[in-house]
Design goal:
With 147 residues, this protein is mainly α. It has one domain (2-146): Ferritin, core subunit, four-helix bundle (Ferritin, Up-down Bundle). It is built from five helices and two strands. It has a two-stranded antiparallel ribbon with strand order 1-2. Helix 1 (6-27) runs antiparallel to helix 4 and helix 2 packs antiparallel against helix 5. The protein is elongated, with a radius of gyration of 16 Å. The N and C termini lie far apart (37 Å).
């Protein structure tokens, strides 16, 4: 499905953040992940921040939301097959987390580009992307431990 509106863009962002938060919350409970509780707590905290920021952006820009169409963003380009964190190996959990962060960063970059007409919304998406970049950096430091 193609995202065609400001509201659709933020709805998808919120859903993506929520699913990622659920993955991170479950992944830390998997066998072998005990030493990564701080990392996954940080990732959960960051997804919660992004959700709050996205919701606030939606509320503050509700009138513009109706007027600003967008095109060229397909949800399927940014969706990953659902995969719970429990029952996976630590290597696969970490790999999946990096995959999720890169996907989210790509979505926020594409979304910010498409919604340039609403500078405040574009900034909000860039901010969420910046958080995801920090997550990638944190994950990469830990992924090296598996190599």
């Amino acid at each position: 499905m193609t995202i065609t509106s400001f509201g659709g863009l933020l709805t998808f962002a919120e859903q993506m953040e929520t699913l990622d938060m659920e993955f991170y919350s479950g992944a830390v409970l998997a066998a072998g992940m005990e030493n990564y509780a701080d990392l996954f707590s940080l990732l959960v905290k960051n997804t919660k921040k992004n959700i709050a920021h996205i919701q606030r952006t939606r509320r503050e820009n509700i009138t513009e939301m109706i007027l600003e169409p967008i095109s060229g963003i397909a949800e399927q380009d940014f969706m990953l097959a659902e995969l719970g964190g429990q029952g996976l190996t630590p290597d696969r959990i970490m790999g999946r987390a990096v995959e999720m962060e890169n996907r989210a960063l790509g979505f926020y970059s594409a979304g910010a580009e498409k919604i340039k007409a609403l500078a405040e919304v574009a900034r909000a998406l860039k901010r969420a992307g910046k958080t995801r970049k920090a997550n990638i950096k944190a994950l990469q430091e830990h992924v090296q431990l598996f190599e």
